[in-house]
Amino acid sequence: MSEKIKTVRGYHRNVTIVLGVILAIFLLIPTFVKNPYTLNVFILIFYMSTLSMAWNLLGGMTGQNSLGHAAYMGLGAYAASMLITKAHMNPWLSAVLGVIIVGLVAGVIFYPCFILKGPYFTLVSIAFGEALRQFIINSSFFGRASGIGLPFGRDSWLNFRFGSKEPYYYVGLAMVLLVYLIMKKIERSRMGYALRTIREDEDAAAAIGINPMKYKIMAVVVSAMVAGLVGFFYASYIRYIDPEMMVQAKSTESVLPAVVGGAAFVEGPLVGGLIMIPLSEFLRAKFSSILPGINMLMYAIVLLVVIRFRPAGILGWYDHSKFKTFIDTKILRKPPIEVIEEVEMMKQQGKEA
Amino acid sequence: MDIFLQACVNGLLMGGFYSLMGMGQNVIFGVMKIVNFCHGEMLMVGMYLTYMLNQVFGMDPYLCVPFVAIIMFGLGALIQHTLITPSLGTKSFTNLLFLTVGLGLLLSNGALVIFGSAYRTIPTSYARTNISLGMVNIPLPRLISFLVLIVISIALFIFLKKSTTGKQIRAVSQNPVGAEVVGINTKKIYVLTYGIGTALAGIAGSLLTGFYTIYPTAGASFGFRALIVVVVGGLGSIPGAFFAGIFLGLLETMVALFVSPSYSDLIVFVTFIVILVVRQLIILRRK
């Protein structure tokens, strides 16, 4: 028996080591990579993956396909920027308030739209995003189509403004980690199970006592709040926002990492983002001056190929591949699933006793 | 009063295009229950096809319409056969959604790569001709387009109502399993429907070129309005789509006239959200 416990412990330790090494690599990258362009690509990966994780909570986990996440991101960016420029608030405080505002807007104004299902939910999310964008374009308070610039100043953590990219890199990395841990927590919680049940069959979920309305609202609000946080990060990093960041094409772009990586997995957007964004940036840098649009064309082709031949995304393919079996048995030394379950059971019993 | 009548006519003429786009979307949505998110891009492809035919063979844009319709039908059928039908089997709405979204990206960026982002027009001898009917002036190209699209709408309506293929399409849209049981080849019907849908979008694009600029993202606003038309006009209803399109065109011009042109998009989207929610509330009440 103790033999089994030992192997399971060893497996968990190996997983921790691998994750730790990956994290350490990301932490050390800025000390070796000094090229601002490369760092910019990493920052882009961080915030696009986070946005994609926000989408994934709603789209991948709950099955409500939103195509309006750029609007939530824009709303967060605008709320934070307005608080900074008009109310002269500290950026960190305005980030917190901005995220709360986005959550309220998503929960209160969007509330009647939760009765819509399937394609109708997608349509309303597009219409909501576009309506929000048109509202900002027509409102002089929000600076109309010309947008808002954030004040420049000295480098400081208090004002979250830096000339170099390194601090943004670390804040972006922290944001990805935080959101990933939140998503992982949600996935394993009661809410996560409820959301996945709703995805599979909403009527059945209601029949077994899950209130679909309640959980959908929770999912939309959390998802919109994360998107709003990304918006704040984007505004602080670029220092300029305009309604163009809320166009529908941006919403689509935010979904691609999740779909390519595997929308059924919390890690899907991270894997997809790590692959798709450097690819897109590389194509943009190499070809866009010769042939504009070629980067998005390749992007579209990758998306179509993945959906046509690997509908579950890269992680869905990896989950059943020999490569995974190799990594599990040889590198992580994963014991058979029955052994892990047995040890889990023993722990449970130990706690109860 | 003059301006009001003129706005009504303009709204009517523009609404015709929304109707045509909505009908194509409606046929696809009705039969396969998928939202075709590249419908606007299909319109754009139709525009560029007309442009090419005009540049290479010197054809009049209105003469191009049948050719564009045939080419677009083939393109739609090919896309359905190679991409959409295999994915229909996975029953994953997310994948189908992003399949059409990806196709839209492919088409609009493909056009950007091939033709560049320059705005193009097809000059015609009659582009500036106006026909005045009492108080209102109607530009000739718009009038021809409107008449052509009315004819096409009626033809589509009769086709779906009377012909055997049309009846098969309606049968599949009502109950795919039942249709299969009575011996209808649903895969063939899917290919046919998607072909018809894209052909209608292509025709709309071709008819637009007489008075509209051609650029890679020209279809986006039409694509979304087609979705509004489908929801407002009711699933599977061709007359419904027709009148919803006209209503949308009139709504836009009325808002532009009485409120402000820059608010017309905002009002259209808000109206759409309200209609979606109210419609769903009525459905829930009926249950």
Set out the fold topology.
The complex is a heterodimer of chains A (about 350) and B (about 290).
Chain A (H helix, E strand, L loop, with lengths): L1 H31 L3 H26 L7 H17 L5 H19 L8 H20 L10 E2 L16 H23 L1 H11 L1 H6 L4 H27 L1 E2 L6 H14 L6 H20 L6 H16 L3 H7 L2 H10 L5 H16 L1
Antiparallel strand pairs in A: 1-2
Helix pairs in contact in A: 2-6, 2-9, 2-10, 2-11, 3-4, 3-5, 3-9, 4-9, 6-7, 6-9, 7-9, 10-11, 10-13, 11-12
Chain B lengths: L1 H31 L6 H19 L3 H28 L4 H23 L14 E4 L2 E4 H23 L1 H11 L1 H6 L4 H23 L11 H14 L4 H21 L5 H23 L1
Antiparallel strand pairs in B: 1-2
- Give, in order, the helices and strands of chain B: HHHHEEHHHHHHH
Fill in the CATH topology of chain B: ABC transporter involved in vitamin B12 uptake, BtuC
Order of helices and strands of chain A: HHHHHEHHHHEHHHHHH
pLDDT averaged over residues of chain A = 85
Q: Name the assembly state.
A: heterodimer
Q: Specify the biggest β-sheet of chain B.
A: 2 strands, antiparallel
- Largest interface (CB < 8 Å): A-B, 45 and 47 residues
Kindly state the mean pLDDT of chain B as a whole number? 88
The profile of the biggest β sheet of chain A is:
2 strands, antiparallel
Share of helix of chain B, binned: over 70%
Separation of the first and last Cα atoms of chain A: 18 Å
Radius of gyration of chain A: 22 Å
Which structural category fits the helices and strands of chain A?
Answer: mainly alpha
**What portion of residues of chain A is helical?**
over 70%
- Radius of gyration of chain B over all CA atoms, rounded: 19 Å
Uncertain spans of chain A = none
Strand content of chain B: under 5%
CATH architecture of chain B: Orthogonal Bundle
Strand content of chain A: under 5%
Q: Please state how the strands of the largest beta sheet of chain A are arranged side by side.
A: 1-2
